[in-house]
Amino acid sequence: MRLLLVEDEHRLAENIAEALREAGFAVDHAADGPSGSHLAEQNVFDAVILDLMLPGKSGQQVLHDLRARKLHTPVLILTAQEGKESVVELLNKGADDYLAKPFDLGELIARVKALIRRSKGAATPILKISDVEVDTIQQTVRRRGHVIDLSPTEFRILEYLAHRPKMIVSKREMLEHLYDLGWEHHSNVIEAHVSNLRKKLNLVNTEPLIETLRQRGYRLRGEEV
Amino acid sequence: MRAAKHSITRRLIFSVLVLELLAGVALIGAVAVNEWRVQYKAFDANLRATSNALLGAVQEDLNDAVRLDWTEALPKDSVLRVTDEHGRVLGSEGNVPTLQVQPNTFQAATVNGRSYRFFTRAGEKIIDPDQSGGIRHRITIVYGLPDGHVRREVLEAIRFFVACTAILLGITSLLLGWLVRRLLNPIHTLANAASEITSTHWHFEPPSSASKFAELSPLTSALEKTIGRLHRAFEQQKRFTSDAAHELKTDLAIVKSSLQLLSMKTRTVAEYESGLAIGLDDLTRLERTVQKMLTLARLEQREGAGNQMCRIDEALRVAVEQALPLANLRSNSITISTLPPAIVPLDSGDATLLCSNIILNALQHSPEHGSVEITAMAQEQQMQLFIRDHGEGIKENEGLSLFEPFYRGDPSRSRKSGGTGLGLSICRAICDRVGGSISIANHADGGAIVTVTLPTSTDFESARTRDLFQALT
């Protein structure tokens, strides 16, 4: 999952990005309003974490412009301002959640995960596809009760696919959602990871879970239970 | 309205009624005197006329004597006595009291217990005037009538006027009550409008009635100005609190997130060490913000100013020395062209703080290899400090806002440059405390120039000043 963090306070942004990366997210950072707005409107992020007091363009305006473009990326607002009114106003204007500074990093991560889950239509943190269980909190995968050991990137790919069962996900989409701008974009990186993932998921007497559709992308097979 | 309070309405009504009562009493007095005069004039004319008629009725009798030949009816209760020069009574009616006879005068007397007024008429009656001048008879007529009714009428008139005055007073008091309340109504309306002002509702619309009256317009404009000032002060306070909270929360969020990040998973000793060092740095920043806020709060308390003296030129040199490492870091230079010695009524710590805040601010806005130039000018009662940088200058209309706490011309600037947004506010508080001033403007040749004006002490009697001046030489 790829997140956009729009926060002008350099040290705070560093800490948040670091924590989110450790939690398995790809994080891009924008230090001012205009660049935050520009990045958010690329529509490649699974959630946006937005500070309100930003140089160049306020967080409120960034949110307004995002929604005006009919983009439904979940937005979590970080605010140090007092007053419930602005919170109500923000939620009414299309923000999905908010956290008041100083916040708990763990809470921030949990809320971001919940936001992404809800936006993908999943109600619980454990995604079940056929006989595979993906625990988005513990970041563990089980097939028929067996724990499958995945690398962070492999987990992210599976998690991303698990949010879209039976849908074709292109390599390009995966690249956009799994890596931040700091990474080299090569579609063969995805291919390599998917290949490893497929091998690890293939237990004895099981159907292959990930389908490859030539020139189009990947698809998770099987009924969601 | 509570009874314990004095009421303008009541006072006004009372004053008018008292004046009206006095006027009424004076009028009644005048009317009574006039009535008395007029009534008695008529009464006396009546007495005189009857007396004359009686004199005319004295006719010749036998033997050249005279007699009263009166046949007409006299007014009721008339009392009279007509005598001739011999004291012979020619005619009488009623019981005439003994009177001091003074001809042609009026006298009061009591007859049978009733008050009478008498007229004594003395006249001559000439009988047979054809023969050698005739015979002269000196006739004295004393004629009186009861005058009780005259007094009654005067009293009646007085009673009538008293009654009229009382009725008028009653009506006036009622009308006045209504009228005064009506006239004072704009004051109540104004008071109501003013009482609607609360900390959340500051809109003051003076009622149209208040501006209509010349007496109320000073009050209205005073109210408007006061409410405006209060509103500004309140907003300033609110903004300061909100900005301070925002600043502190951001600093806290950094500290908290640094420590939480460190505890998210088990790390190596090196990672913990660097994490702790970073956390400490973040804490230092929080500490600095709190420290500056406390300094500002201390300076803004008016008490405690005065009695302090220091050499501003020394303070400035100390501040420059302190700022040199930062200046060197960015290859900036600080030059002092002229710096005459001067004594200002400031604590040396505050004076250094003032200078170093301005110098640091100038350095923060200086480009690399830029210079900060300091000049001072001593005048009779004050001295001026000019600190100029070669940075981007200030924006238009930004001159005053820059001294507001936490003001950020560019929202990103002050935090990135390490400032707390309180430095210049502290400078202004230091200057305000001793009656000085500070301002910032763009220099004609680019960059910004800060001008500080401080009063200088010339009180040579003060031991402290003397010491400082001795140290000068």
Short structural description:
Chain A is α/β, with parallel strands linked by helices. Chain A has helices at residues 10-22, 33-40, 59-68, 84-92, 105-119, 152-162, 171-178, 187-201; strands at 2-6, 26-30, 47-51, 75-79, 97-100, 126-129, 132-135, 140-143, 146-148, 210-213, 217-220.
CATH level-4 homologous superfamily of the largest domain in chain B: Histidine kinase-like ATPase, C-terminal domain
Strand content of chain B: 15-25%
CATH-level-2 architecture of the largest domain in chain B: 2-Layer Sandwich
Strand line-up in the sheet with most strands of chain A: 2-1-3-4-5
Record field, number of beta strands of chain B:
14
What helical percentage do the residues of chain B reach? 40-55%
Q: Cα-atom Rg of chain A, whole angstroms? A: 18 Å
- Give the count of structural domains of chain B: 3
- Oligomerization status of the protein chains: heterodimer
First CA to last CA of chain A: what distance? 23 Å
Shape of chain B: rod-shaped
Broad CATH class of the largest domain in chain B: Alpha Beta
- Structural class of chain B, please? alpha+beta
SSE sequence of chain B, one letter per element: HEEEEEEEHHHHEHEEHEEHHEEH
Biggest sheet record of chain B: 5 strands, antiparallel
Number of strands of chain A: 11
